[in-house]
Amino acid sequence: MPDARKLFEALVREHGDMLTVFLKSVLRNPSDVDDLFQETMVVAWRRLDDFDETRAFGPWLRGIAKRLVLAHHRKRAGLACDPAALEQVDLRLSQWSAQPGDTWEEKLQVLRTCVDGLPAHYRETVELRYFHQQAVREVSEVLQLSHAAVKKRLERARSLVLDCIQRKLAPAEALP
Is residue 176 part of a domain? Predict the structure, then answer.
């Protein structure tokens, strides 16, 4: 089975970053992200024979991860996970995967460039919230802003980043 193993390793390298993004977007605890990443890979390896090679690997892998995330939340008392929210994250990642760009690393570099290009007040808010994993309440305290102001800044920053990504990944217009 060395051929299946090599194929699986290549698919994991190609889709590992995407899976990490998916898990980080739906889980708060970094150790849960690591655990569910590993568990998803184990399940995918065991079910590799079930994979339909005519379909895309990324959505199949995220499907496994979604089921594991829902099970993870059911095990934890008081934690709820909205399946519709998982579907929304999956849809966004599918749309992003369909954008031009050869690898997830190239797409993530575009994301980094767009975040770095934000005006300082938006960039600082985004970095505190998403890079340092601080809750909105904590960001409010650090920046001495109201909860609503931080949420609005994050909303505007996400919109600016999305516009930037779409511009950078848009196919070049054909010259007349």
Answer: no
pTM of the predicted model over 0.85: no
Question: What is the residue-wise DSSP string for 50-74?
Answer: G--TTS-HHHHHHHHHHHHHHHHHH
Pairwise CA distance, residues 82 & 111, whole Å: 26
If asked whether residues 93 and 126 sit together in one domain, one would say no
Tokens for 84, please give them: 């519709």
Interval 23-69: pLDDT, tens:
887 787 888 989 999 999 999 999 988 888 888 888 888 889 988 98
The answer to whether residues 80 and 109 belong to one domain is: no
Could you tell me if 39 and 68 are in contact, meaning their C-beta atoms sit under 8 angstroms apart? yes
Residue 27, SS3 per DSSP: coil
Answer for the pair 102, 59: CB distance below 8 angstroms, yes or no: no
CATH classification at residue 70: 1.10.1740.10
Find the domain containing 45 and state its range: 1-98
DSSP state of 49: G
**How far apart are alpha carbons 6 and 3 in whole angstroms?**
5
Q: How far apart are the C-alpha atoms of 86 and 25, rounded to whole Å? A: 9
